[in-house]
């Protein structure tokens, strides 16, 4: 793997990556029964390393193992779960710059944004630690004499997090940190174009679990290139595994001019909506920029101040 051997890629070995990496972590071991896919540097189209995808069998085994682990994890007191998440945050701090460089290398963000994305997970870990001591319920008066009602929050069991390439690891932190302190186990399906980030983050997280003698399967990751197929499988299998909850932050494919402009009007207001937009002057006409704005104002009943800009026009 020529790209992996380049001098500027040597830091990858310090976060657990090699030229060829199994893409599925189940039952305490890395495995992959699917085909190998290449992780490509978007800046120069050079192959960085390979990741072996999960097979359907890997996925089924992982879901069963995660459900079993959830029965133990949810019994752990919330403050102790918070302590584990705190340790995950500390582990991220030790590899902050390496992981940030990986985000920049594999996804294409500038280095400060790559580091900032990993920092978001650290911040979420800190937030979740405090939350672990504030998962309060209510004490409610009862109409029956000498009785009261208590409200207690119970874990869902397993939470599925499916992330897109534009935030390859921050979205995991937004959801997984909260899910873990609330007593849930996590299944993470990372973006197909950023498999190395998925592998490196999982290596770090399961390292913390192993150090604390906890079930590794309370956090599993799956890399599979056919993302939409796996989303469907996760939804279908979730029904048989006690309603696995999935948090999706997905991108979108090419749309026509009118649809694209309407999404552009919400740029910056909706996460994942037109995060990367390119409006071609042969596909966009002035009426497209005016009509959707007027429709939005009319439908939602507020004044929207939209400056019509030529964004990415050739």
TrEMBL record:
It comes from the Eukaryota. GO terms for molecular function: aldehyde dehydrogenase (NAD+) activity. Residues 36-208 form the Aldehyde dehydrogenase domain. Keywords: NAD, Oxidoreductase. InterPro entries: Ald_DH/histidinol_DH (IPR016161), Ald_DH_N (IPR016162), Aldehyde_DH_dom (IPR015590), ALDH7A1-like (IPR044638). SUPFAM superfamilies: ALDH-like. This is Aldehyde dehydrogenase domain-containing protein. It comes from Vanilla planifolia (Vanilla).
């Amino acid at each position: 793997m020529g790209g992996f051997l380049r001098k500027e890629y040597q830091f990858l070995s310090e976060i657990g990556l090699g030229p060829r990496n199994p893409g599925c972590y189940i039952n305490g071991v890395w495995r992959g029964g699917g085909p190998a896919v290449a992780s490509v540097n978007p800046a120069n189209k050079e192959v960085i390393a390979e990741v072996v995808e999960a097979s359907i069998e890997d996925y089924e085994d992982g879901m069963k193992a995660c459900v079993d682990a959830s029965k133990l994890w949810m019994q752990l007191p919330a403050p102790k779960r918070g302590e584990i998440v705190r340790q995950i945050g500390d582990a991220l701090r030790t590899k902050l710059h390496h992981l940030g460089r990986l985000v920049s290398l594999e996804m294409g963000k500038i280095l400060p944004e790559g580091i900032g994305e990993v920092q978001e997970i650290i911040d979420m870990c800190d937030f979740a630690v405090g939350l672990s001591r504030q998962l309060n319920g209510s004490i409610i008066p009862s109409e029956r004499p000498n009785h009261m009602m208590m409200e207690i929050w119970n874990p869902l069991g397993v939470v599925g997090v499916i992330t897109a390439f534009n935030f390859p690891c921050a979205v995991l932190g937004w959801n997984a940190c909260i899910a873990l302190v609330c007593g849930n186990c996590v299944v993470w399906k990372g973006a197909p174009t950023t498999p190395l980030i998925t592998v490196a983050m999982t290596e770090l997280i399961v390292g913390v679990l192993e150090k604390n003698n906890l079930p590794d399967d309370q956090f599993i990751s799956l890399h599979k290139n056919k993302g939409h197929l796996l989303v469907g499988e996760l939804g279908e299998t979730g029904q048989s595994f006690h309603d696995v909850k999935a948090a999706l932050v997905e991108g979108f494919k090419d749309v026509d001019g009118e649809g694209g402009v309407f999404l552009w009007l919400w740029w910056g207001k909706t996460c994942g909506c037109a995060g990367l937009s390119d409006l071609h002057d042969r596909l966009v006409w002035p009426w497209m920029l005016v009509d959707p704005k007027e429709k939005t104002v009319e439908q939602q009943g507020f004044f929207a101040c939209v400056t019509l800009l030529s964004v990415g026009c050739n």
